[in-house]
Amino acid sequence: MSNSMDQPRWDGAVNARLVLGKLYRMGRSEWLTTTGWQQAYADGVRTVIDLRNPGERARRHTDPDVDEAAKAGITIINSPTEESGHPEFEALAVPYMNHPRMYPENLAFFPERIAEVFHHIAAAEGKIVLHCSAGRDRTGLIVSMLLELVDREDLLEPQYEAALRGINDWHRISAYKHPHESYLEERDLLGPLHERLRALGEFVASLRVEDFLREHGLSETELEAIKKRLA
Questions:
Q1: I need a surface site. Which of 89, 99, 150, 172 has the fewest CB within 10 A?
Q2: What is the CATH number for 176?
Q3: How far apart are CA 109 and CA 123, in angstroms?
């Protein structure tokens, strides 16, 4: 049986791991190579849900060239968790939504966008990959809500810590120099990690995900479909 920290072997994938059941998470899909897309398909992936804003969905000069035919059979959905250019949210999410302390604000400002992600998860075919840019916080917001939905809060901290460490390791070797983040040595990483885990715990403790989803339009059939995907 797969462990929740299992890392799929998809060539080029960054910060990729199994969450539960039929759900994976990862960083930018543009990091996958042609072979990586083919390997994801072979593993049963049929749906990729990209949580980034449309303007972020662009190839960098350091990304691999990909044969678009390798994506055949995989539905790619862009379902942002926020509204780009929203002045009030952007005043709080500085330089962007990169910390669990911002999750409550993201949910409060954009409940319909969050609910839309869950609609897509319920309707998806095959195994699902959720991703944002780093695979840490926008992905972490949705993954944390999913884990609360199926009473697997025991995986909250392991999932978030693995995501934080995964993208931190990538910053150490990446040819692309991130404008706001860089690799942190272990002694410098532990403080931010513990602070983030505290904020994550407070967020999840404040929320009943099933009630939130019902309030924002998820049907009982959809809720059951999501739970089955995570079984």
A1: 172
A2: 3.90.190.10
A3: 24
Q: Is residue 77 part of a domain?
A: yes
AA letter at 136? R
pTM, 2 dp: 0.96
**Which range marks the domain in which residue 133 is found?**
17-229
At 157, which helix (H) or strand (E)? helix 156-173
For residue 184, being part of any structural domain is answered with: yes
In a domain, 10, yes or no: no
Over its length of 231 residues, how does the chain's per-residue pLDDT go in tens digits?
333 468 999 999 999 999 999 999 999 999 999 999 999 999 999 999 999 999 999 999 999 999 999 999 999 999 999 999 999 999 999 999 999 999 999 999 999 999 999 999 999 999 999 999 999 999 999 999 999 999 999 999 999 999 999 999 999 999 999 999 999 999 999 999 999 999 999 999 999 999 999 999 999 999 999 999 999
